[in-house]
C-alpha cells in the first residue's frame, strides 16, 4: 500500500453558513451572462444528490481506518451535509427564476442508479473520481477571480465557500480508497481507478453539457452559435473547463494523490470572510 500524502497539519473544518436567504437574485446572476449562469446552475443541480452519494460511499468503508482518517471522514460528512443544504437553497432560487430542473435531476438519478447497481467499491471509485473533479474545479474558481466576477454576492460567496471546503477535504475519499484496497496490487488499483475516471468523465461531461443546454433552451437560446458560445466560455475565456485538463491528466500518473498539489494557500487567501462560521471538529 502506498503511503498517503495528506498533509499532517491539515484541518478539515466545516463552516456553517447560509447564503442568499431573502435576497433578490438576477435570472442571469453571473454577470448577466446566460452561458456562465447556466454552467454553474447545472452543476449546482447535481450537488445535493451527488454529495449524499459521496457520503454514503465513503461511510461504507470507514471500519478499520486510522483514528485520524476517521476524524477526517466525520468532518467530510459534516461539510458535505452543509453543502447539500446550501445547494438545495441555491437550486430553489434557480427554480424560482422559472427554470424547470426536473430533467437535470432525472439524469443525476439515472447516473447514480447505475453506480449503486455495482459493488460498493465501484461507488467509492466513482466518488474519488468526482471528488477530484470538484477539487480541481474549486482550485480553478479560487485561483482565477474571473470565474465569478460580476456575480450576485450571495451566489458568488456560496461558490467560493464551497470551493474552500472541497479543497480542504479533497484527499478523504482517496485515502479511504487506499484503505479499502490495501490488499490490492498497485496495478489492479490503478486499472480500476483509471477505468472509473474515464467512465465518470464521459458521463459527467455528457450529462452536464446536456443540462446546460437544457437551461439555455429555456432561455430561448439554441442552435450551433449557442453551443459555440458555451465551448468558448468553457475552453476560451474565462476557460473553466480548460483549466481542469492538466490536473485531470495528473490523476492517471504513477504516485498520484490529491495532495501532491498542496493548494491550501488558496484557502488561506479566501477564507477570512468565512472564518467566524467555522465549527469545532473535536
Automatic annotation (TrEMBL):
InterPro entries: UCP07580
Record bears the keyword Hydrolase: yes
Any one GO MF annotation of this record: hydrolase activity
Entry-linked PANTHER family: METAL-DEPENDENT HYDROLASE
EC numbers for this chain: 3.-.-.-
Protein name: Metal-dependent hydrolase
Keyword tags: Hydrolase
Class of this enzyme: hydrolase
